[in-house]
Amino acid sequence: MEKSADYFTVTLQKGTLSGEQLLIEPVQTTDGVSIYNCLLDGKPITQLRQSSDGDWIQVWGTLDKHSVLAIGEALEHHLQ
């Protein structure tokens, strides 16, 4: 995996982390699909990637499905 210097922040609008601001570190993978390291207060809380059908998948972490979807929506909004 190749790390990127293009960190950005997203503020979640819903879910258990509503109102929280996450620092996002995109990481390019060898298959060309980015993985997003998500940090809260400087600590990693999850790593997400978007599947080919558009669903957000939690690669590691223990967030509930609603939080994963909320982060995915915030990522999509930022990346547009």
Topology of helices and strands:
Layout: E1 2-3, E2 8-11, E3 21-28, E4 35-40, E5 43-50, E6 56-61, H1 65-79
Features:
80 residues, alpha+beta, 1 helix, 6 strands, 19% helix
Largest sheet: 6 strands, antiparallel
Helical content (DSSP H or I, runs of 4+): 10-25%
> How much strand content do the residues show?
35-45%
Q: Would you tell me the overall average pLDDT?
A: 91
Q: Give the strand tally.
A: 6
Shape: globular
Number of DSSP helical runs: 1
- Amino-to-carboxy terminus distance: 23 Å
What would you report as the Rg, rounded to the nearest angstrom? Answer: 12 Å
Characterise this structure.
With 80 residues, the protein is of the alpha+beta class. Helix content is 19%, strand content 42%. Strands 1, 2, 3, 4, 5 and 6 form a six-stranded antiparallel sheet that branches. Strand 5 and strand 6 form a beta hairpin. The radius of gyration is 12 Å and the shape is globular.
Q: What is shown here, in short?
A:
The chain has 80 residues and is an alpha+beta fold.
